[in-house]
Each structure stands twice: as structure tokens, then as C-alpha cells.
Amino acid sequence: MLGLLTMLVGGCGTPQPPEQPNPPPAPLMATAKPAVKDVDVDLAIQVALALRSTPAEHQAILHQHGLTPDSWEAAVVDIASDPQASERYAAGLEAQTAEPEQGQEEPEPTL
Prior knowledge:
Elements: H1 2-12, H2 38-53, H3 58-64, H4 69-81, H5 83-98
Helix pairs in contact: 2-5
């Protein structure tokens, strides 16, 4: 019996402090995406106009502006997700396509 008692007490070892519950997770902070810079919007307008005028040269146009198809898509998504940038982008495209090039007259509307 003494052997059994020694085994039970010996197996317990030193007393352990009660287990502490895990601390609650830190509150998730909303990470607002920074606003799209004006320079980014201006670059996107330039690239979009170039792509419209010569779509067959899309790879060269993107490369010329330091972009890849993936980075171009990401830039467009960023602009689309920012209401102010999106408005500037649309207005920039509209302004550039609405103005006839110098030396060219605007065609007469056909009925």
C-alpha cells in the first residue's frame, strides 16, 4: 500500500498553477485602404487611352508604363473601389475622347 501511495504522490510531481485562459483576441481594426493617388488616376487615364487607340499593342503599352496585365487590373480595381478616383478616371476619359485632336474637325452628325 505504501508503494501505491508513493507512486500516486510521486506521479503528481510539483503542483502546477491553474491553467490561464487564453487572452481575448485583440479587436480587429478596420484597415481603410489609402485613397488612390491623383498620379495613379492620371497614369490609368493615359494607359486606357493608349489601349483604346491601339488595342493590339496592349502588352507593349503596359510595359511602356511599367505595368503588367495583373498590375493594370489591380490599378483599375483600386480606382473602381474609390468613388472619387473613379469619378476622376471617368471624367478624364470622357474629356480626352470628347475633344477632337488638333487639326481635325469634329464630324458632322448623321441622321
